[in-house]
Design a protein that fits this description.
This protein is 44% helix and 32% strand. It has 57 residues and is an alpha+beta fold. It has one domain. A three-stranded antiparallel β-sheet has the order 1-2-3, with helices on one face. The radius of gyration is 11 Å and the shape is globular.
Length: 57
């Protein structure tokens, strides 16, 4: 499971399991990546639930 983060500043992909881990990064600074990672941590359960609902069909 993974999540893509896209904005005008860049694009990144984070694995959600087994641990949250940066998979790829294009143009985000380390500071921006830390902010994104904290947001993912705070919403990990919701993201996994949404992933499972989306791909269960």
């Amino acid at each position: 499971m993974h999540v893509h983060i896209v904005s005008g500043d860049g694009e990144a992909k984070f694995w959600l399991e087994p641990d949250i881990e940066l998979a790829s990064n294009y143009h985000y600074s380390k500071k921006q990546l830390k902010v994104v990672e904290k947001l993912i941590e705070g919403h990990k359960d919701e993201l996994i639930c949404a992933w499972e609902q989306h791909f269960s069909h």
